[in-house]
Amino acid sequence: MTDLAVNVDQKVKEAYFTASQGQLIWQRFKRNKSALAGAWVLIILVLSGIFAPFLTPYDPTIAGRDKSYQNGAPQIPSFCDDNGCSIRPFIYTYERTRSIKTNFRWVTEEDASLEGRRYVQFFNQGTEYNYFKFYLDFPGKAADINFKGFNFTTHLFGVDKGMIHIFGTDSAGKDIYSRTLTAINTSMAVGTIGVLIAFVLALVIGGIAGYYGGWIDSLLQMITDAVRTIPSIPLFMALAAFIPDVWSAEARFFFISMVLGLIGWPTLARRIRTHLLTERNQEYVLAAQLCGASPAHVIRRHLLPSFTSYIIVDLVISFPYMVLSETALSFIGLGLKEPVNSLGVMLQNVTSADVLLNYQWYFIPVIFFIVLVLAFVFVGDGLRDAADPYADTNK
Amino acid sequence: MGLSELMLQLARFTLIRALLAIFTLIIVSFIVFTLMEMVPGDCAERYLAFKNTQGSGISVADIDAERVRLGLDQPYLQRWFSWIINAFQGEFGDSCILRVNISQLLGQKFWFSLGLCLAALLLAYAIAIPVGILAATSKNAILNNSLRLVSYLGLALPNFLLALMIMLFSTVYFGDSLTGLFSKEYRDAPWSVDRLLDFLGHAWLPIFILGWSATAFAIQTVRALMSDEIGKLYVTAAAARGVSGRHLLMRYPARHALSPIINSLGFDLNRIFNELPIVALILTLTEAGALLIDALARSNDQQLAGAIIFLLTASIVAINFVTDIFLALTDPRVRRSIVG
After folding, report:
1. In this structure, are residues A131 and A150 in contact, taking their beta carbons and an 8 Å threshold?
2. When comparing pLDDT for B178 and B11, which is higher?
3. How far is CA B151 from the centre of its chain?
4. FRET label pair with A129: which of A82, A320, B121, B217, CA 20 to 30 Å apart?
């Protein structure tokens, strides 16, 4: 009996001491309930962004608009009404009319009769969408790489006749639900590109400062601090304002993500430099050098593993800042523009009294983005605590 | 240490800090100037293109003549040099498109915006310091968790979304969107007691919204610093000597926690500047940051944009300088270190 207990204890200890860094981090991360919940929410949101064409019934651009239901309220499917119940959920047919009765304003009237019911269908056929389309234009026709990808027409849900808008529609009749999920994609893409560019810059600049030290370090630190002092959003606005109007939405998108990265590097560079400066004088580095290890070996096997986890944490933490900056810029009309969808693009023009008073469903996407950013913050905080090797001993 | 020695030390510290601040501004001016140069099209082209829309035909020769007139034909470094010399004297030349002197154009509006931002900063710390200390000392789980939530929301609900939400709710429930800084009857009136009261009645909301993220972050910082300090031995020693209650808190840990907070003021101001243009746009504060958007977005005015960014950065550098000097006055350890 006691033998067994000692044995189990031994095994646990052994598992702890032989575990890799990744396993240890994962073990600590799992214990943090809020971070774990954040991770799940994040995964769900990212997946719903990736599978947005399938999960949403309509095209998020002007092509998928509902001409007969502009500025329409959300349509919540129900099972029962005065005319009896149905197993299949349904919504009503809405019609926009204007007459002398309504003072010539457009109003939406619902047809609550049995004939007016639109039944919700699952896995129905709808507009075509494409995955993995890939096209590279090289000089010469034969050298072009053209992968047509896969086309699908199945959507998770739809209605048998007309259209369904569970989050309502905007002034052009575009489905807000379809736009919201697509916007998650855009935000993730902007964030990823921005973070990657910032990361490469930070690695190079912070790496040089930390590796050489001395006056190079002081000079680079002064420049980094100077860049950090400039308020980034006004600077960004100044740069974005000069994008020529003729640029396509895609070119704009890449430019914006690039500028976000170009402005976002200083904080990260500072941290990498500090890590390098402290780590390169540690005993284990000296030991490795005394054993005759080459600098490349020292960097690869000892220095990099010592702070990869910190860098990953920093990247996760800086992600929401990128997303929020993009949103802020698109919101004032300097960032992305239609037909690209992002939260900022969707929030343009919502400050008018008309929208505030009559069309509050324009604000539904905000909830998604607060949840997305919060999920990132929770995961980032959880990772930071988990990556700290002294977290266990401190408690 | 004698008084004269102390003065000498302080003077040396101030001088080095001032030189560093000027150096930072020079780097900043170089970055800003370069960026303004890199955008497609220069002042001459922009102005003449603008004139073109008014109906006068423009030729290439006209553009070249305008370039010579504006001094744009001179080499890059020389122009930067004269720009920075003028900038340090508060002179930014004429606006590209509006053709008015920039310092006159900005003048009052800039000070007004700066005032709003500083008020927001003040409010942020007026809230954060007591609340943060309370959070660090209290063992109340509900209080701590709700404060944690607030500080998370400070990041997840950026100021402009907060402003939108407040507008949404106030429009739906009170029928007033709470925008602008003055009531209609006071908008163009000269300053008087009534106008000031009216202004204060309107300004608290923009000031609160501007300071929102900064407040959330500051609460987090104050709490972390205080809980670090409270656990230290000198506090236990003071408690053992019989010092207790608020006196213990204010006399020992709070004083130590204060200097990192003062140090971070500059970056909090940076955070508030980031929010200013967008919040100003939502709340239609035409008197303040909207000019920034106008300059940057509507008119593509690179001279004006450069001047605004330079001025904003200069005020952050100034705040950093002042807080450094203040810290040196109160903390001998800071005084002795020259650079760090």
Report:
1. yes
2. B11
3. 20
4. A320
Residue B187 DSSP label: T
Residues B274, B200: Cα–Cα separation, whole Å: 23
Return residues 375-394 of A near B (CB < 8 Å): 377-378
Give the per-residue pLDDT at B339: 45
pLDDT at A394: 44
Count CB atoms within 10 A of the CB of residue B320.
Answer: 22
How large is the angle between the packed helices B43-53 and B60-70, nearest 10 degrees?
Answer: 130
Of A328, A331, A370, the CB nearest to B156: A370
pTM, full prediction: 0.79
- Is the link from the previous residue into B332 a cis peptide, with omega within 30 of 0? no
Residue A242, chain B, CB below 8 Å: the answer is yes
Length of chain B: 340
Taking 50 as the threshold, does the pLDDT of residue A395 lie above it? Answer: no
Q: Which residues of B fall within a CB distance of 8 Å from A328?
A: 158, 160, 278
- The amino acid present at A116, given as its one-letter code, is G
User: Residue holding tokens 């009261």?
Assistant: B197
A83-125 tens-digit pLDDT: 777 777 777 777 767 677 666 666 666 776 767 777 777 777 7
Q: Considering only CB atoms, which chain B residues are within 8 Å of A227?
A: 31
**How many residues are given for chain A?**
395
Is some CB atom of chain A closer than 8 A to the CB atom of B275?
yes
Contact criterion met (CB below 8 Å) for A91 and A75:
yes
CA distance B120 to A257: 30
Distance from CA of A273 to the nearest CA of B (A): 16
Per-residue pLDDT, A40:
92
